[in-house]
Amino acid sequence: MKFILVLFAVVAFVYAEQYTDRYDNINVNEILQNKRLVMSYVKCLLDQGRCTPEGNALKEHVKDGMQTGCKKCTDNQRRGARKVVRHLRENYDNYFKDIVKKYDPKNEYEEIYESFLASDD
C-alpha cells in the first residue's frame, strides 16, 4: 500500500543532504498509543486542523520523503517512519488513504516508498 506519514518521526527541517536530528528523540510509541495525538497529526497533514511546529515540519517534508524513499532521514527517522506507516495502515486506513491521495495523487512515488518500507536498512 502507500507510504504517507514517513515523517511522523521525522518532523524535521532540511539541512544539507539530511534532515536534522532535532526530533529524533520523539517517542513515536507514545504518539501512536494516543488517538488524539495521531488524529491531530493526520488532520494537520490533511489541512483539516491546526498544526504544531512539528506538524508543519512534517507537512513540509512528507512529499520529499515519499519521492526519495526517506534518503534524507536519519536511522531513527527511518525506523520510526516504518513503524508509523504500519500503524496507520492497520488502525486508520481511511485517513491513510486520504493522506496518500493528497501527497501522491497519481501514485508516482509508490514504488519508491514501498521499497523503502519493505527494507530494514
UniProtKB/TrEMBL annotation:
Pfam families: OS-D (PF03392). It comes from the Eukaryota. InterPro entries: A10/PebIII (IPR005055), OS_D_A10/PebIII_sf (IPR036682). Coiled coil: none annotated. Keywords: Signal. The keyword Signal applies. Residues 1-16 form the signal peptide. PANTHER family: CHEMOSENSORY PROTEIN-RELATED, GEO07322P1. This is Uncharacterized protein. It comes from Pieris macdunnoughi.
